[in-house]
TrEMBL record:
Residues in the signal sequence: none
A Pfam family that the UniProt record links to this protein: cNMP_binding
Region of interest (Disordered), residue spans: 111-132
Gene3D superfamilies in alphabetical order: Jelly Rolls (2.60.120.10), Tetratricopeptide repeat domain (1.25.40.10)
Domain of life: Bacteria
InterPro entries membership: cAMP-dep_PK_reg_su-like, cNMP-bd_dom, cNMP-bd_dom_sf, RmlC-like_jellyroll, TPR-like_helical_dom_sf
Protein name: Cyclic nucleotide-binding domain-containing protein
Length: 416
């Protein structure tokens, strides 16, 4: 049976690529006859009927399928099909009723907890039909809306389809939209300074990305690429801004969602926190502050006490050594992923350099008390930080010497 179904699907895909829509429709209908629970093939039938202009047949198929997805708990799939139905027939009454049911389901889902990206692991083959229990989408913005606001929002969502290998978001570029994955899978890809690239995480159905564009004006930290045919619901920042003006809790929820996911990803992957247990990382996450600073902002000032550890997420910072003559000697800049401030706190000495934002920067900040509680009392971590302190102090001393008039030069690294 499985081999026969695979043959039908392969033949359908081949006919579709050749532009033979009637032939592809016939093959997918053969799948439905042999496997009535294959909801994915039923959706392909509805899509082909719509392409062929058979409006009523496609409406009826979409409606049945939307109800199936809703009952199985796959809210985003049902929501996407409701949008398709309303595009075909805006006054479709039963679909309006189904949307009210979906809104209630979204309210039942836990909405305050962030959705961390999936760690790198072999991806399972797509299911022909999702399991009956399904999974709730972790999308906070929908559950913060009243019924009327939710229905109004549906009209502003754009249903988009991306082919395998297509880029949805480009690293380093500002995005103006948030995306919810209806079906498919994407990879978060980080482009390295060496010219290579690294896939850092996967995201799949029910996951949200792009909320950074709605809570900060910073560029995307990763590219997002479709690893298979991927369907998303897109919501622009302009529309979200309107919602936030009417419902401030939407903005608060997005801030919380973004902060918790960002912290989870950063603390989970940064080498400085690698030796901490999961429980320790979770406890530290609650004490980190997410902050954005403008270009020119002084974060650490030479000769002054340092009261926090900083982890640079976006942007770059200038590091300078102030000479007694009033001359500033530039040192290697701080870039994404760099940590500063912890050395001066660990050794209880003033900062030996000044750190200034050289662009608009997004940082994580952990104050002195939290550093003492989470970091400085960990034996292995304290040893690592002490070794880093000694190395940085040595390099800064060399930089101070080479930057002096007698030495006739400049350069080196910083001790912060």
């Amino acid at each position: 049976m499985k081999d026969t179904l695979r043959q039908y699907k392969n033949r359908a895909a081949e006919l579709f690529s050749q532009g033979n829509l009637e032939g592809a429709l016939s093959e997918y209908r053969s799948v439905m006859e042999s496997a009535p629970d294959d909801a994915t093939s039923r959706q392909r039938v509805a899509e082909l009927l719509q392409m062929l202009g058979r409006r009523q047949e496609s409406l009826a198929t979409y409606e049945v399928l939307a109800t199936v997805w809703a009952k199985r708990g796959w809210v985003l799939r049902a929501l996407a099909l409701c949008k398709v139905i309303l595009q075909i027939e805006p006054s479709h009454e039963r679909t309006q009723q189904l949307l009210a049911t979906l809104h209630a389901q979204l309210h039942e889902a836990p909405c305050a907890q962030a959705a961390p990206s999936k760690p790198l692991e072999p991806r399972p083959a797509p299911l022909a039909s999702p399991p009956s229990l399904g999974r709730r989408p972790r999308i906070p913005i929908f559950s913060q809306l009243s019924g009327s606001e939710f229905l109004s929002l549906i009209g502003d969502l754009e249903l988009r389809v991306f082919a395998t290998g297509e880029t949805l978001v480009e690293q380093g570029q500002a995005s103006s939209s948030m995306f919810a994955i209806v079906e498919g899978c994407v990879g978060l890809i980080r482009h390295l300074k060496s010219g290579g690239q690294r896939t850092v995480a996967f995201m799949g159905e029910g996951d949200l990305f792009g909320e950074l564009a709605l809570v900060t004006d910073g560029p995307s930290r990763s590219s997002v690429k479709a690893l298979e045919r991927t369907v998303v619901l897109e919501l622009t920042s302009d529309r979200v801004a309107q919602l936030i003006r009417r419902t401030p809790s939407v903005g608060q929820m997005l801030q919380t969602f973004h902060r918790e996911r960002l912290l989870s990803q950063t603390i989970g992957s940064h080498s400085l926190f690698r030796g901490l247990s999961r429980e320790q990382k979770e406890a530290m996450t609650r004490d980190f502050q997410l902050c954005s600073v403008p270009m020119g902002k002084i974060l650490v000032e030479q000769g002054q006490p340092v009261e926090a550890l900083y982890l640079l997420l976006n942007g770059h910072c200038q590091v300078v050594l102030d000479e007694s003559t009033g001359h500033e000697s530039p040192l290697p800049p701080l870039e994404e992923g760099d940590v500063f401030g912890e050395i001066s706190m660990l050794l209880n000495v003033p900062a030996t350099v000044t750190v200034r934002a050289d662009s608009r920067c997004t940082l994580l900040r952990l104050d002195r008390e939290a550093c003492e509680r989470h970091l400085f009392h960990q034996p292995g971590l304290r040893e690592l930080l002490t070794r880093m302190a000694a190395e940085r102090l040595h390099r800064t001393s060399r930089a101070h010497f080479s930057a002096s008039p007698a030495a006739g030069g400049s350069g080196g690294a910083s001790s912060l």
